[in-house]
Amino acid sequence: MSFLSSMPRRTSFVLLICLVATSAARAEPPTKPKGLKPGDTIALVAPCGPLNEERMTLAAERLTALGYDVRTPDDLFRRRGYLAGDDQRRADELTSAFADPEVDAVFPGTGGYGATRMLDLVDWDVVAANPKVFIGFSDVTALHLAIAAKCNFITFHTPTPQYGLGSKDGLHPFSERYFWRSLLAAENVSAEDGGAEGFEYELPADAPSPRTLRPGVATGPLIGGNLTLVASLMGTPYEIDTDGRVLFLEDVSEAPYRVDRMLSQLKLGGKLRAPAAVILCRFTYREPDNEEGDGVADEKKKRTQSFDEVFADYFGDAPYPVITDFPMGHGVKGQKWSLNATLPEGALVEVDAGAKRVRLLENPVKPD
Fold first, then answer.
1. Which SUPFAM superfamilies match (predicted)?
2. Which of 217, 223, 246, 342 could crosslink 178 through cysteines, CB 3.0-4.6 Å?
3. Which long-range contacts (CB under 8 A, 24 or more apart) does 236-241 make?
């Protein structure tokens, strides 16, 4: 009989919570990468899906205009079906970018698919020894979580160059503001706050506001990303650690029942047991065109649930703060508010769910 099983249930539950809190408190704070400044070198890489040359060229031109030296491998636009080359090549490219002493930041061009295939081929010792600004979202979530698990330095969940800086209109002003404010060391010290580090995310006045699912205030380091990737890494060496952390999630093109299934996986794996707070960001899904006849389509609609209903099932009675509709994640074509806030993974934040506020409490990068 185990020590816990021999104890009264209430006592063992309290002990478990204490152990979780102690574990989170003892976790070594992540290293902060050096903040970016004009003149620094940014390496563009392709660790996931193939890149669009026109968009990436525009992104590189815009970065150059801002004063950065942009470095690209000769075969950046290689293609192997839905991958940007074979697994070993993509892993070597990523490792080399971190190993290069002249590179200050590593910018994956886009997500798509492929990051999980090469996680066991990356030299994580090299990456850990050379913490640098690292950005991206979607499939890049796998790399954020791998760095959190193997390297313990802050990374940045951000728009990717191909669909941000490389888009025709560039980043939305909201997304651009928090992208650069997170990456540039000098941007995170506010004279208005008496020199305090960090900032509060402030939406445009006419943008949809986040909503409160469970009120409360909590503080913890950020961790998370695309739900599909978070779920796919369960049971691997790169599995997410949510205890005492502020978990944030988003996804795109996943029906409510699939989001339900992935949240169930996280729940069964203990990942929804003791986060400090949860931030549910943008979840978007459009029903496919009806090819089965109106009667069949109508019947299917009766059997579905909304995202709000799914979230209520998993978080409606949560003992921690939960907000929904935070402005981060994939946009939808034609949608007015495709905001994508940068969230520094590993940095300390405060979530006030009742007030629908998220505040970064520290500078996520270190001064030069």
1. Class I glutamine amidotransferase-like, LD-carboxypeptidase A C-terminal domain-like
2. 342
3. 236/119, 237/149, 237/150, 238/119, 238/142, 238/145, 238/146, 238/149, 238/150, 239/145, 239/149, 239/269, 240/145, 240/148, 240/271, 241/148, 241/149
